[in-house]
Every structure is written in C-alpha cells, then in structure tokens.
C-alpha cells in the first residue's frame, strides 16, 4: 500500500512538472536545486534518531570472546544475510542521495551518471524492502511514525530527481563514453569508504577487543590509514578536471555532515560546538557559499584541532564500536578535507593575512565556548574545546592549573566558573600551534611546488628531445638544429612570464645578432634586459618562442648552446672558498678546455687585469672589482663564440673598465659575437656597432650606431624618447637599410655588366 502511494505521488508531481515545462513556465535547473535542498534537509533531520539496527551485534559470529551481549543472536532483528543486505542497501542509498544533491548544484558528469544509473535500481529495491527499512529504524513496521514518513518522502524526491536526470540525458543525448563509464565506476568505488554505515563493522563482526589509544598498534594503524588516504585521494584526483575534483571533495563534505548527524544528539552536550564538530558545519558552509574566510578558519584551526584529537583521542570504547567510528570519521574528514581542498586547488593557497583572520575568528569562537561552558555546566556537564574539563591537564598531571586558579561569579542563582590561567594558556598554545602550522604548510607547499616544477620540466625536456630528434632526422644530436644560424644569435618571438602571473616580463621579442658585432642592449631598470639575457644563457625557462646560439636551440640543445657561450652575470657570484685559480680550473673543466690552452689564456688575462698577485688566494678575500675581473676571465677561458655580459662595467675602476671594453672590441674583431646590457650611453656610443632598445618587455628598435651618427641624432635623447618616437626611428632605420641594400644591388649589377662587357 505505501509503495503505491509513493509511486502515485511521484507520478503526479512529475506530470505537473512536465506540463509546466511544456508551457515554458519552468526551469529544470531550479526545480532540481529545490528538490536537492528538500532531499538533503529531510535526510539530515531523519538521521538524528536511534536505530534498532545499531544494537545488532556480531551477525557473522566472528567475535566469540566478548561477554556483552551474552548471546549475539538475541540482538538480531533479521537473518545474517538480510542484515548484510539491508546495510549495503542503506549504504548505497545514502551515496545516491549525496550524488543526487551534488549533481543538482555542480556540473559534474560523474555525479549525474551515478544518480541517473544507480537511481532506478536502488529505488526499486527501497520500495520492495521498505518494511525492512522501517524495522531497521524502529524494530517494527509503522508507516505513520515520523522517521517512516521522512523515509517515504526521500524515496519520492529521489524518484523525481532521477527521472528528471534521465529525461535530460535522453533529451540532450549525453550518453557516457567508455572512459566516462570507467572513471565514474572508479569514483563510485572511491566514494564507498566515506559513507560506510557507522554500525556496519560492529553489527557484522562484533568487537575487535582493543581501544585505539596511547599509540598502540591499532591507534598507529588508524593514524597511518588517515595519512595514506590523503595521498591516495590526492594522486587519484590531481589530474582530473576541476569539476571532478570539486565534486569529490563536495561529496566528502556531505559525507562528513551525514556521518556527524547519524548519532542521536540530545541536550547541551549534543550541540555542534566542539571545534571539530563545528568544522563539519563550517566546511559545508564554505563549500555551499564558496566562503574563503570560513574555509581558512577550518584550514588553520579545525585541521589542527582534528590532528590533536586523532593523536590524543578521548574515548575508551572498542575500536569497532559505533561511537569510536563516529569519532574517527568526523575527525578524519575534518582533518583531510581542508588539506586536500588546497592541494587540489579548490581553494587557493592561503596567505599570511588569511591565517590572521582565522586567528580572529578562533578568538571569537574561544571566548564564546569559554562563556557557554561556564553557563551550561549549571544544567549538565559539557566541555566544549576542553576549556572546562580536566581531559588535557590530567594527561600532563597539571590539574593544579585549573584547581588553583579559579574565578567565579553568581548571577540569578547560576554560578559562572572560569579557570582563567589554564584557559589563557590553552588559547595562547593553540594560537602558537596555528602559527606553526602555517610554516609547516608553507614548507610542504614549497616541496610540492618544486616537485611539480621538476616533473613539468622533465616532461618539457622529453617533448623538446622528441622534437629535436624529429627535426635532425638522420643527423647527430650534437649537430645544430638550425645550421643556417651557425654564426648568429637568433631570438624568435621570445615571451617570458614568471610563475602564474598574467603580466609578461618580455613580450614577443625577436632579434638577430650577427658575427663580428659588439651589440648593446639598452633599457631602463625593469625593462626586461636581464630577463632576456638569463633566458638566452639558459638560467631560466622560456615561456614562449625560441632562442638559438650558433644554430643550437637553448630549449632542446642547452648543453651544446651553453658550450658556445661565455656569460658575465650582473651579480658576479663565485665560489668564495676556492682560490681564484681553482675557480678558473673548475669552470674550464665544465667547458672541457684543454689544460695547455687554459693555462696560456689564464696567464694572458691575469697580465691584462693585473690579477696575478691574488690568483692563488681564496676568492672570499677579493674586493668587488677583483671578483668581477675573475668572472670575466672565467667567461672567456673557453674562448666562446658568443660573449654575453649583463651590466659588466658596474663597480669597476677606470683601468679595469677600459680593459674590458678593449677585450669586448677585440673579441668581436676576432669573428665573435659580443652582446651586453647597459644603461650607460657613453659606452654604447664609443663601443657598440649596433644597439637594440627594450621598454616594458617589448623591443622598441634595432639600430646601427653609425647610421644614427650620420643622421646627427642624439643617442641619449633617442634612448629617453617615448615609444612612438622610438618606433618611428626604428622604421627610419629599416628604410635606410633597404636603401643601402638596393644601392649595393645596383652597384653589383653595374659591376657584373662591366665585367661582362670587358670580357
């Protein structure tokens, strides 16, 4: 009879909804959300009752040692097979309810598929075994009791939601492919553990015979299991889509709510005001309303509280008992959900200001529970956040902190008692631990980010190597990928962004540097000079584009490219515990320089820089200028084809500065490339053959210094002009270059005609 009423009401509701839909007076998405809220609310309300099934003990007769109850079959309300079946049916039905709620709010195919395909089977089974459901709750069949009505309402709402999901699936032809079916099954299997009925193990297997406490074997096993599950969930979800990750974490949040409210809660002690109990509610609020502030409070305060509770549990029951299962599930979920929410990027990594806000919220919470403890203990024994009872002080034999320092007052016959020293110390200790947790989180994030960066870099290197092999074909890997660039440095559409920043430090930068030139690289501080140079020498990665050194790609052939580069950095960092000679030999070994050649070149450079007197002393005794000279010598010890210098003249005495400028000129005259950054205009005018100017990450112009001088232009004014003028000057240079090229072509033609005529 009740099954017919459930089906009849469900059909009537569906008929009304369909008529409204046909008239376009109804939005299905809104209907699903309303139904999901009703389903969730009715289920949570129905949880807060005793269940006859919870008193069932050891139906599989595994536990034969326990003396209570004296005879297990006396507690059974079903046969062993039916008990197992009802447990599994309730278990899967709870998952169906959670997935139906989630699929109505989050665009997750997997939640939708689970609700749609799991729904019909479970609805039929729930209708067939409705009487057994009610017996599991009340120990008898009574359709008019409060919980019975709620169960029937839940079945009706589920029928409507599942039918609408099927309607949408058929209408939009959103049938899952093989991969989606596989992923949905895997997610379903992974979801089982979080909504296992709390009495399942006790009802089937009885007692284990041990209390998980004081780091005994059972306690250590549980701690290890919690930590292992964090890693399993993280690695299982980290490559999934954001929607899938959020769906699964939302499912865990809902599971936390369902498991928390499963036990009947009465009186003041049943209020969710313990820190970890509060966290169950707050996590739900954070996810439903996407509240960062609430989430970060759970992240800093509740995770720490749950960790302490897991390490120092305050129960004395068997590990298989329903109370211990309830404690374990509540604290485990509160512990792992915030950590996974950040690790899987559902919420951003918190900043220090978020932690300060969390401390502010915790302070308000702490003041509230201290006052409520003092008030409610007039009626019954309560101890929110361990601020009133002796649980913590007993563990460390510090009861005197409470008994010796008590402040109290009476108001309208009620006594308000405060253990002020203990409560202040507890507050300060917890805040200190919150600060410590911030630093622990930060260290873990750095380790994870570094590992992720390493994996990403290795993957990029493999991709680049495959591209290189494909481009070279039958050639050796040591051959240049671009043989036409063998005597050049070529930068093609180079773009650089740092980290996750959207701002480009350098944007679409292209430049060709020919052999035999001293090439000046001008730009204001922060214009992008050092960024370009550091990418060119391989110190930092290239976001987009390519860079070639003598035909070798700095991305896919970094070793070959770097062997042809001598680099003088702007910070002149050296190994200060080595002597100057040891440092030069170390660099020479890296560049595979023959010992005879290195000794000859070293003597030559020592004489030029007058550094021979200090070459066998430790570098830490060198002045700034001497270190700079040593770096210059190290950059030239392998006679590089390309010599790159980043602000090389800063901090040098006039004699050394002159010497380096001479060496730059000589190096270019010997058929090499010299490319250096500077903002000293006088050096550029006297030393450079060509210059390029960068501003705000963009190449503004590429100029021949001689042409600028011919036009009578002032290089300093040119450097300081705005973008439009620089671009105009660059276009003028291009025109001059084209004219010069046309002139050369004409002269070549005349010469060829003359030679032909003479012949």
- Radius of gyration computed on alpha carbons: 38 Å
Average predicted confidence as pLDDT = 88
Q: Tell me the strand order in the biggest sheet.
A: 8-9-10-5-11-12
Number of helices: 27
Q: How much helicity do the residues have?
A: 55-70%
Task: Give the structural class.
Answer: alpha/beta
Distance between the termini: 118 Å
Unreliable stretches? none
Number of domains: 3
The coarse overall form would be elongated
Q: What's the main sheet like?
A: 6 strands, mixed
Number of strands: 12
| Amount of beta strand | 5-15%
Can you characterise this structure?
The protein has 759 residues and is of the alpha/beta class. It has helices at residues 2-22, 28-47, 80-105, 109-128, 130-138, 146-172, 178-191, 200-205, 217-237, 242-260, 275-289, 292-311, 322-343, 352-376, 391-395, 400-403, 420-472, 529-536, 558-562, 580-590, 595-609, 624-636, 654-669, 681-687, 705-710, 715-720, 723-758, and strands spanning 407-411, 414-418, 488-497, 504-514, 518-522, 544-549, 552-553, 565-568, 642-646, 673-678, 690-695, 698-704. α3 (80-105) crosses α10. The longest helix has 53 residues, at 420-472. The protein has 3 domains: 1-207, no CATH class; 209-474, no CATH class; 509-541 and 559-724, 3-Layer(aba) Sandwich (Rossmann fold), CATH 3.40.50.300. The strands form 3 sheets. A 6-stranded mixed β-sheet has the order 8-9-10-5-11-12, sandwiched between helices.
């Amino acid at each position: 009879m009740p099954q017919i009423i459930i089906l009849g009401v469900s059909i009537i509701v569906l008929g009304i909804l369909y008529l409204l839909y046909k008239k376009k007076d109804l939005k299905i998405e809104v209907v699903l959300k309303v139904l999901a809220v009703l389903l969730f609310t009715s289920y949570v309300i129905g949880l807060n009752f005793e269940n006859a099934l919870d008193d069932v003990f050891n139906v599989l007769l595994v536990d034969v040692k326990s003396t209570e109850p004296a005879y297990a079959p006396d507690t059974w309300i079903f046969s062993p097979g039916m008990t197992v079946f009802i447990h599994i049916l309730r278990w899967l039905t709870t998952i169906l309810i959670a997935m139906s709620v989630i699929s109505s709010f989050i665009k997750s195919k997997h939640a939708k598929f689970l609700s749609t395909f799991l729904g019909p089977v479970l609805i039929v089974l729930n209708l067939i075994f409705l009487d057994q459901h009610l017996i599991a709750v009340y120990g008898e069949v009574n359709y008019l009791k409060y919980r019975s009505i709620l169960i029937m309402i839940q079945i009706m709402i589920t029928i409507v939601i599942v039918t609408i999901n099927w309607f949408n699936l058929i209408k939009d032809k959103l049938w899952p492919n093989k991969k989606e079916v596989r992923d949905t099954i895997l997610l379903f299997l992974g979801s089982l553990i979080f909504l296992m009925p709390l009495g399942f193990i006790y009802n089937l297997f009885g007692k284990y015979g041990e209390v998980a406490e004081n780091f005994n074997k059972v306690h250590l096993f549980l701690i290890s299991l919690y930590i292992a599950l964090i890693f399993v969930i993280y690695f299982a979800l980290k490559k999934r889509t954001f929607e899938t990750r959020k769906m699964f974490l939302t499912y865990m949040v809902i599971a936390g709510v369902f498991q928390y409210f499963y036990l009947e809660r009465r009186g003041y002690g049943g209020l969710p005001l313990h820190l970890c109990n509060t966290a169950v509610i707050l996590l739900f609020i954070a996810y439903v309303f996407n509240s960062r502030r609430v989430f970060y409070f759970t992240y800093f305060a509740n995770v720490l509280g749950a960790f302490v509770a897991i390490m120092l549990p305050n129960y004395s029951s068997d590990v298989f008992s329903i109370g211990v299962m309830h404690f374990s599930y509540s604290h485990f979920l509160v512990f792992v959900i915030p950590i996974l929410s950040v690790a899987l990027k559902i919420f951003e990594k918190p900043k220090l200001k978020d932690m300060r806000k969390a401390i502010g919220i915790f302070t308000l919470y702490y003041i509230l529970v201290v006052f409520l403890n003092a008030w409610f203990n007039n009626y019954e024994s309560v101890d929110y956040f361990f601020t009133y009872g002796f649980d913590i002080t007993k563990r460390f034999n510090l009861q005197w902190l409470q008994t010796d320092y008590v402040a109290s007052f009476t108001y309208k016959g009620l006594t308000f008692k405060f253990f002020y020293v203990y409560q202040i110390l507890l507050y300060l200790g917890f805040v200190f631990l919150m600060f410590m947790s911030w630093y622990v989180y930060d260290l873990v994030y750095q380790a994870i980010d570094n590992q992720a960066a390493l994996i990403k870099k290795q993957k990029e290197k493999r991709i680049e190597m495959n591209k290189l092999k494909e481009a070279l074909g039958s050639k050796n890997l040591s051959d240049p990928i671009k043989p036409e660039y063998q005597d050049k440095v070529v930068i093609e559409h180079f773009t650089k962004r740092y980290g996750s920043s959207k701002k480009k430090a350098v944007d679409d930068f292209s430049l060709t540097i020919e052999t035999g030139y001293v090439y000046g690289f001008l730009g204001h501080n922060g214009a992008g000079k050092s960024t370009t140079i550091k990418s060119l020498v391989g110190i930092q990665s290239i976001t987009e584009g390519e860079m070639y050194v003598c035909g070798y790609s700095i991305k896919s052939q970094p070793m070959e490219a770097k062997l042809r580069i001598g680099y003088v950095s702007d910070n002149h960092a050296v190994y200060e515990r080595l002597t100057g000679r040891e440092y030069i030999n170390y660099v020479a070994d890296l560049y595979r320089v023959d010992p005879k050649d290195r000794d000859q070149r070293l003597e030559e450079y020592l004489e030029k820089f007058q550094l021979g007197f200090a070459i066998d002393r430790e570098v830490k005794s060198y002045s700034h200028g001497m270190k700079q000279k040593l770096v210059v010598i190290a950059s030239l010890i392998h006679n590089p084809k390309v010599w790159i210098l980043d602000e090389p003249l800063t901090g040098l005495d006039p004699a050394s500065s002159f010497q380096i400028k001479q060496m730059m000129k000589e190096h270019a005259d010997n058929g090499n490339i010299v490319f250096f950054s500077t903002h000293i205009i006088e050096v550029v005018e006297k030393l450079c053959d060509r210059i390029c100017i960068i501003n705000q990450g963009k190449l503004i112009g590429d100029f021949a210094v001689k042409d600028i001088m011919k036009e009578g232009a002032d290089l300093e004014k040119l450097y300081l002009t705005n973008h439009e003028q620089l671009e105009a000057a660059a276009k003028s240079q291009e025109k001059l270059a084209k004219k010069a090229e046309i002139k050369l072509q004409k002269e070549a033609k005349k010469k060829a005609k003359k030679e032909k005529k003479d012949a």
